[in-house]
Amino acid sequence: MDTTDWRLVKKRTADADGAVYVSADGTRYRRTGGTALRSEAAFQQMAAGLDYPVPQVLEHGETSDGTYFVDEEALGGQSLHEKALASLDGRRELPDQVVDQLAEVSSRLLAAQAAHPVDGGPEALRRWVEQAGWTHNVFTENPDLDTPRTRAALTRATDELTGTPMVWGHLDYGLPNVLSAGVIDWQHHGVTPLGYDVALALEVIPFKGGAKGYAATTQQRERYLTVLDVAARTAGHPPVSPHLGSFLLVKSLFFLALMRPTDPARVDKHQKWQYRRHLFLKGIEQYERTGNIDTALFPTLDSFATGQNPAVRP
After folding, report:
1. CA–CA separation, 310 and 157 (whole Å)
2. Are 51 and 112 in contact (CB under 8 A)?
3. Where would I find the beta strands (DSSP E) of 17-64?
4. 83-86, long-range: CB < 8 A, 24+ apart
5. pLDDT higher for 121 or 171?
6. 2 falls in which pLDDT band (50, 70, 90)?
7. Where are the alpha helices (DSSP H) in 50-147?
8. How crowded is residue 143: how many other Cβ atoms within 10 Å of its Cβ?
9. Cα(114)–Cα(106) distance, rounded to whole angstroms?
10. In contact, 6 and 21? CB cutoff 8 Å
11. How far apart, in whole angstroms, are the C-alpha atoms of residue 116 and residue 60?
12. Which residues neighbour 189 within 8 Å (Cβ) at sequence distance 6 or greater?
């Protein structure tokens, strides 16, 4: 594999010893890795055939040392996350232009997903909860959260989603993985209820803690969901916004899975783990009362830390 005309962009976290390169003219990216990358490339080729807004795989293969590589078209120079950060100019409000671009790409993805439902069978929703929420990992690392109350909330979520079409989804959809021309980084792909990917793109921002970066306003979130509901109806399906609470319940598990328990002496890491636990429990409380979860009511990491003794679990 010749990388003479390629510039290293970053190491890949999804694959040990993997990396991302960009061509000298900026028109294509090369990713290297192993089995996980091979699976992702095969899925991406399938998704492109279903009109998903994904990069076209231009070349793929294996080098003499067993390293797998994938060359794909570049969808642009910046993700919407990078565009948002670059345009803040001292403010925290997400630029409307970024929200509009996100809505356009999300509508395209939703339309393609709706046009190609997957026959997941009666167990599809349960498997989605396990995969999308990394539920086994969360309950293994936080056994005190594996309670009848938690299980009842998850059962309610799947019951409320019964009848929703199952589709191939991204599972980690958000501004960092969206460019103006499409969606990248499909390594976590799996079968999801229609709307799970796109509906949460702005709702997941508060899980980062609010210490830096951007935030979406209530008006932006509502406008974005309205665009998605129109896209769903156009595709012949009910709106996706009524399922926001069920989707967020599972997504809060995903964010907790990313933050594993640590030694209390590592105050910063330990506090972030406690914070994600707090958001999960706060989400369950809201969901039990209203059937929805409003992420605008989540505390920031700083406000949580100020009122929380790091040695005490929430």
Report:
1. 32
2. yes
3. 19-23, 28-33, 57-62
4. 84/175, 84/213, 84/214, 85/213, 85/214
5. 171
6. low
7. 80-86, 96-115, 124-133, 135-141
8. 9
9. 12
10. yes
11. 26
12. 40, 43, 47, 168, 169, 170, 171
144 token code pair: 């005190």
Q: How many CA atoms lie within 13 A of 194 on its CB side?
A: 28
Phi, psi of 61 (to 5 degrees): 175, -165
Radius of gyration (C-alpha) of the chain in whole angstroms: 20
Q: What is the mean pLDDT of residues 6-16?
A: 79
| Residue 48 burial class via C-beta count within 10 angstroms: exposed 0-12, middle 13-18, buried 19 and up | middle
Sort strands 178-179 and 19-23 into parallel, antiparallel or unpaired. Answer: unpaired
| Locus of tokens 């989540």 | 298
Encode pLDDT of 220-234 as tens digits.
999 999 999 999 999
The span from the CA of 166 to the CA of 191, in Å, is 6
pLDDT in tens, 25-42: 889 999 998 888 889 999
Examine the pLDDT at 177 and tell me if it is beyond 60: yes
Whether residue 6 contacts residue 23, with contact meaning beta carbons closer than 8 Å, is answered with: yes
Q: Is the pTM of this model over 0.85?
A: yes
